[in-house]
Amino acid sequence: MNAPAQAGTRRGSLLIIGGGEDREDDMQILERFIALCGGPDKRIVVLTAATRVPERVWSIYDAAFGAMNVDKRKPVHVASRLDADDAATAADVAQADGIFMTGGDQKRLLALIGGTKLDEALHAALARGACIAGTSAGASAMSAHMLADGKADLHPEKGAVSLGAGIGFVQRVVIDQHFSQRQRLARLLTVVAQNPYLLGVGIDEDTALLIEAGGGIEILGAGAVTVIDGRHMVSNVADIRNRKVPEMVDVRLHLLPSGSRYGGPCDTATPDALSDFLKIITNIA
């Protein structure tokens, strides 16, 4: 696991996207990504390791970033762990002003890059001040505890969801995506029931959670971000069989719609109930 930032160390920003971001019309989220990178004249790389069709996915973002006048854009295709351990590729990523991780399968992404030079390069880029964005699978992979597999349709179910090791930019959270559109509240509740130490973060499509270098957060796009806090929960999950619905009493749910902004130097009105979440989610490494 990577060490946390030392006091005074410059940090970049994270743009965590719930998938399905607009890539053709107003492109609000992608435009903000480019701004966070420093503008269209900066160097952008698109990491396609999560998908089995990298050229097809790259063509979509190539067109989108090209329409925004980003000339210094290039794909980083990773087909094996040997590719992810290539020193030249890692150096290219470490020096980029922005890295965009596409959707696909987060398990594939971590199987290819976890613990490699490319993994180290992502953390080095963030520490240097780059913006790292991830959509869909790329969003789920950003946390240290990654939602890897499973579903719960109507209610949370013990044992229905499994976690894996993520990249680790943020700690003590689990990120789910396509949240409202695929009705994943029960799935995220399942995670929190079994892991009350972790906060559940569900991000809607065409919606992004921005974690800023200055310690604030902002919600962008068309939807909302749902936060589930089970740290004070009373539950019988340890005593029931797998696939049974757990009792979950005193679970907090926060709904943060687009336009919500908390923390940072300009905000003095963060509700007490969100203050712990803000401290946890902005402790990026």
TrEMBL record:
It comes from the Bacteria. Pfam families: Peptidase_S51 (PF03575). GO terms for molecular function: carboxypeptidase activity; peptidyl-dipeptidase activity. Keywords: Carboxypeptidase, Hydrolase, Protease, Serine protease. It catalyses: [L-4-(L-arginin-2-N-yl)aspartate](n) + H2O = [L-4-(L-arginin-2-N-yl)aspartate](n-1) + L-4-(L-arginin-2-N-yl)aspartate. Its EC number is 3.4.15.6. The keyword Hydrolase applies. CDD domains: GAT1_cyanophycinase. InterPro entries: Class_I_gatase-like, Peptidase_S51, Peptidase_S51_cyanophycinase. Belongs to the peptidase S51 family. Exopeptidase that catalyzes the hydrolytic cleavage of multi-L-arginyl-poly-L-aspartic acid (cyanophycin; a water-insoluble reserve polymer) into aspartate-arginine dipeptides. This is Cyanophycinase. It comes from Massilia antarctica.
